[in-house]
């Protein structure tokens, strides 16, 4: 059995595990043991501002996907099967479109002369084009768009398993619809919210293409910090310490979440 | 319908529009006759498709991407299916902890993967080569295949394979004759996942592709950073069409899986 596992394992160890160990080593060793790289993350503005901005964006995106995704999953779970398939198809469709393609589409929609600005202008609602892209706003809009399916699918999977008898029982015992929703349905759907939120949060932490194309240089997420240090400055010490911290955040969040719900569910193996 | 329901449906409708519009907006843009983006397009033309098909640089990149996507999908399917079979049939704790390593590419931020692969390739001279690109995408594709195939294997009753072996088949033969035909739909969907993942992969390619061996996505990324050229809209529409075609294949394929007798799929 072990033999069958070896080829796949070898590829991942050679191309991922070994480099990760090397990065960890690089981050603390430069002509001797040093914590200089980590000190820089804490003391130099550009580094911790980037971490701060990345976590802020991750919070905003997680909250937004939960607020937008919950009603969608709720409707998909409560509609008759034929309709719920249509709703789910519309959720999954963008999921399958390249991230690059969608970044391009958002540029078309949001730029100064883009579709949204020209429509608002011709309706007489604005005189000066709104600045919708090349900033954090544009990045968030596109990131939410990319990650919304990751919220809706686990939510839907959880809601679908909530027995209708429970909410009916709540109603027959005299609960108002909103009472039944908040006291019965919402708590039961909590595992889905946690799974979706963890997934969205962690994925946002590693976003690169979207902020690079839509952030206009004003959105400087941690991934961009890593790539700049390698590509422009050949600063492997800085790049590796930032990578180690980012990876530690990701693993810590996954570990904490796996105490609450099974890992297989987190990984989307539903 | 209660007013609350109407508000709910209205809200959900808007969210669905938000999801769908960016995906379909590129199609009319790709048929525009204008150099600059305006909507609706002043008139329709095929000039951006001609620009794409007539450019040797874009064609070369497309060739590289297709070769890369097909070969890494096939290789990761073979390696991933073998690994999934091992995970499913082994009771050893070691194998189960190794499973975490096999899924690592799914959770590691892509830029970190990219600089790691870049570093290794710089040492062994695989930068800007097709084998290098294929190997990196095999690594990224394996977790998708394992996840998909495990779903199929859990629905499959292993006693069937034991029966085949007790009747004198060796393990390899019983796998190909008895097991594989029954888990085929999940193997295929794993392969399609790996194909799309390799076709769309951008960040690793930014670091390790180069020279003759530029991928389509790397070229698109660089073009997007510099200026918005409607040629990209034409390529994007084609890429989206390919993805949708594959999704339909996966869906048809899933239907076949459902038709198979269902064991307990949720146990783990």
Automatic annotation (TrEMBL), chain A:
Q: Do you know which InterPro entries this protein is assigned to? A: MetI-like (IPR000515), MetI-like_sf (IPR035906)
As for subcellular location, the record says:
Cell membrane
The UniProt keyword set, sorted, is:
Cell membrane, Membrane, Transmembrane, Transmembrane helix, Transport
Q: Where are the transmembrane segments?
A: 50-73, 85-109, 137-159, 180-209, 236-257
One GO cellular component term of this record is: plasma membrane
Q: Which family does it belong to?
A: Belongs to the binding-protein-dependent transport system permease family. CysTW subfamily.
> What PROSITE patterns does this protein map onto?
ABC_TM1
Extract the CDD domains matched here: TM_PBP2 (cd06261)
Q: Which Gene3D superfamilies match?
A: MetI-like
The organism encoding this protein is Phyllobacterium myrsinacearum
Q: Fetch the Pfam families from UniProt.
A: BPD_transp_1
From the Swiss-Prot or TrEMBL record, give the protein name. Putative spermidine/putrescine transport system permease protein
TrEMBL record, chain B:
Parts forming coiled coils: none
Q: Which residues form the ABC transmembrane type-1 domain?
A: 62-250
List, in alphabetical order, the GO biological process terms annotated in this UniProt record.
Answer: transmembrane transport
Keyword Cell inner membrane (UniProt): yes
Q: Which residues cross the membrane?
A: 7-31, 66-88, 100-122, 128-153, 174-196, 232-252
Q: Name one GO cellular component term.
A: plasma membrane
SUPFAM superfamilies assigned: MetI-like
Q: Where in the cell is it found?
A: Cell inner membrane; Cell membrane
- Please identify the protein, giving its name as recorded: Putative spermidine/putrescine transport system permease protein
What species is this protein from? Phyllobacterium myrsinacearum
Task: Give the organism's phylogenetic lineage.
Answer: Bacteria, Pseudomonadati, Pseudomonadota, Alphaproteobacteria, Hyphomicrobiales
């Amino acid at each position: 059995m072990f033999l069958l596992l070896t080829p796949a394992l070898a590829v991942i160890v050679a191309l991922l595990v070994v480099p990760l160990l090397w990065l960890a080593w690089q981050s603390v060793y430069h002509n001797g043991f040093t914590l200089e790289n980590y000190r820089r993350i804490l003391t130099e503005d550009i580094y911790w501002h980037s971490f701060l901005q990345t976590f802020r964006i991750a919070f905003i995106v997680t909250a937004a996907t939960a607020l937008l995704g919950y009603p969608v999953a709720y409707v998909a779970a409560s509609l008759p099967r034929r309709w719920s398939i249509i709703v789910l198809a519309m959720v999954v469709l963008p999921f399958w479109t390249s991230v690059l393609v969608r970044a391009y589409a958002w540029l078309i929609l949001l730029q100064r002369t883009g579709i949204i600005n020209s429509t608002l202008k011709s309706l007489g609602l604005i005189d000066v084009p709104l600045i919708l892209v090349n900033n954090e706003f544009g990045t968030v809009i596109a990131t939410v768009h990319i990650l919304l399916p990751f919220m809706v699918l686990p939510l839907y999977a959880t809601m679908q398993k909530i027995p209708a008898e429970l909410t009916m029982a709540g109603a027959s015992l005299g609960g108002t619809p909103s009472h039944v929703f908040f006291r019965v349905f919402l708590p039961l759907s909590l595992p889905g919210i946690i799974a979706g939120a963890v997934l969205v949060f962690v994925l946002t932490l590693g976003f690169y293409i979207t902020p690079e194309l839509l952030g206009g240089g004003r959105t400087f997420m941690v991934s961009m910090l890593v790539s700049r240090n390698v590509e422009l400055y050949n600063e492997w010490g800085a790049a590796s310490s930032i990578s180690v911290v980012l990876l530690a955040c990701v693993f810590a969040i996954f570990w904490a979440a796996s105490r609450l719900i099974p890992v297989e569910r987190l990984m989307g193996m539903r | 319908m209660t007013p609350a329901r109407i508000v709910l449906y209205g809200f959900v409708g808007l969210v669905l529009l938000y999801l769908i519009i960016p995906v379909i907006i590129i199609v009319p843009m790709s048929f525009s006759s204008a150099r600059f983006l305006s909507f609706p397009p002043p008139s329709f033309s095929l000039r951006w498709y001609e620009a794409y098909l007539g450019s040797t640089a874009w064609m070369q990149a497309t060739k590289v991407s297709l070769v890369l996507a097909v070969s890494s999908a096939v290789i990761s399917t073979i390696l991933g299916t073998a690994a999934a079979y091992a995970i499913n049939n082994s009771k050893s704790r070691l194998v189960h902890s190794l499973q975490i390593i096999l899924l690592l590419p799914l959770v590691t931020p892509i830029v970190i993967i990219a600089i790691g692969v870049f570093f290794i390739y710089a040492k062994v001279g695989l930068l800007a080569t097709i084998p290098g690109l294929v190997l990196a995408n095999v690594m990224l594709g394996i977790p998708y295949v394992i996840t998909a195939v495990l779903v199929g294997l859990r629905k499959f009753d292993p006693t069937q394979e034991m029966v085949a072996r007790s009747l004198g088949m060796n393990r390899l033969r019983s796998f190909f004759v008895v097991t594989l035909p029954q888990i085929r739909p999940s193997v295929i969907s794993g392969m399609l996942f790996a194909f799309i993942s390799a076709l769309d992969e951008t960040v690793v390619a930014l670091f390790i592709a180069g020279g003759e061996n530029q991928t389509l996505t790397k070229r698109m990324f660089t073009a997007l950073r510099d200026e918005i050229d409607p040629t990209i809209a034409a390529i994007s529409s084609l890429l989206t069409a390919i993805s949708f075609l594959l999704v339909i294949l996966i869906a048809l394929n899933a239907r076949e899986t459902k038709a198979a007798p269902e064991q307990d799929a949720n146990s783990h």
